[in-house]
Write a structure and sequence with these properties.
It is built from nine helices and 15 strands. With about 350 residues, it is α/β, with parallel strands linked by helices. A seven-stranded mixed beta sheet has the order 3-11-10-9-8-4-5, sandwiched between helices. A six-stranded mixed beta sheet has the order 1-2-14-15-13-12. It has a two-stranded antiparallel sheet with strand order 6-7.
Length: about 350
């Protein structure tokens, strides 16, 4: 389906209006008038793009302002913005590869965190024996905070079973939890505390809940400095400076939209009947329909949801996405259909 405007809560397809419950604009920011005004004002100050290296002799204070906000918001020592969430992941993998880390990945880890020769954390539902052997080494565990097709944060307690002679670095992709989970939407990073994790690193796309094209890496100051010195980072243009400054200026909007999103989820929790047709967590803005026919029913009632083949496991991704911009009448319509649907 091709549309000629941003797909917010209502989109027009072939001159017909549909309710839209798809995409990743969890906080509804791309169409938020006050948020747009901040972006526009910052574009007037910082231009539409800045193609120079972040290591050049001219340093834009927009980056300092935005990255200090992100570090404080995420509750990390430091944060660094880059042009995309995908680049954030690739830079982290490059830095850790240079440090001779051995990589292990949880199931359904995003392609941004693909590492050469990475091994599965689990083999036949058991912890990989390589994680339990007597070899003293640096290991990196790669994981999505909320994997595709799931509605709850990943369970990391299995890391407690890894012996102490394995020096663990945890890299967690929070593209679908930043702005959603945690205090005011800060994500999960600050809550991950395991005694055998020596370093934790967060990567995330900012083009989802945060509404701006770019990515972030958050960790301790020493690791962020390592990234800053990478040839790939030095030779790359940064995230749009106007967008980085916008994050520093829009903190109150992030918080208020997060509150609206939580209110919508709590409302759904009061009206959605427990059944086998949909999977829902009142703390997470995604409902997974379990029946393919349900997607057709929704479309016949002028509701469009996310539907495409996802690369991590090559199956069709059907998602009903709730945003801060959805109104109660929107929620009533879709939840009524979910409640009434029967095979």
């Amino acid at each position: 389906m091709k549309v000629n405007q941003f797909p917010d809560r209502i989109i027009t397809v072939n001159n017909q209006n549909y309710l839209y419950f798809g995409g990743t604009s969890y906080l509804g920011l791309p169409t938020h008038p006050d948020f747009q005004n901040i972006v526009i004002n910052n574009i007037r100050q910082w231009g539409t793009a800045y193609g120079s290296s972040r290591s050049a002799n001219i340093q834009l204070t927009a980056y300092e302002n935005g990255e200090q906000f992100l570090a404080r918001f995420i509750k990390s020592e430091a944060a660094l913005t880059v042009s995309s969430g995908m680049l954030a992941g690739k830079l982290v993998i490059e830095a850790l590869t240079a440090s001779r880390n051995t990589f292990f990945h949880f199931p359904n880890t995003h392609p941004a965190l693909k590492a050469p020769n990475s091994e599965a954390v689990f083999i036949e539902n058991q912890l990989n024996p390589r994680l339990l052997d007597s070899v003293t080494e640096k290991i990196t565990i790669l994981a999505d905070a909320v994997p595709s097709f799931q509605i709850y944060p990943i369970d990391l307690t299995v890391l407690n079973s890894i012996p102490s002679h394995k020096e663990i670095t945890l890299v967690i992709d929070e593209s679908h939890s930043l702005g959603i989970l945690g205090t005011n939407g800060c994500g999960l990073y600050s809550t991950i505390e395991f005694p055998n994790i020596k370093r934790k690193i967060k990567v995330a796309s900012l083009g989802k809940a945060f509404g701006l094209t770019g990515g972030v890496i958050a960790s301790d100051s020493n690791f962020i400095e390592e990234i800053y010195q990478l040839d790939t980072f030095v030779s790359s243009a940064g995230m749009n400076a106007a967008f980085v400054q916008t994050m520093a200026d829009a903190e109150s909007i992030y918080i208020s939209q997060h509150q609206k999103l939580k209110a919508n989820l709590q409302y759904i929790n009061t009206i959605l009947k427990t059944n086998n047709n949909s999977i829902f967590n009142p703390d997470y803005p995604v409902i997974y329909p379990t029946k393919k026919d349900l997607i057709k029913l929704l479309e016949s009632n002028n509701i469009i949801v996310t539907n495409f083949e996802y690369p991590t496991d090559f199956k069709i991704l059907n998602r009903i996405v709730i945003t801060a911009n959805h109104e109660k009448k929107d929620l009533d319509k879709i939840i009524t259909l979910l409640n009434e649907y029967q095979i």
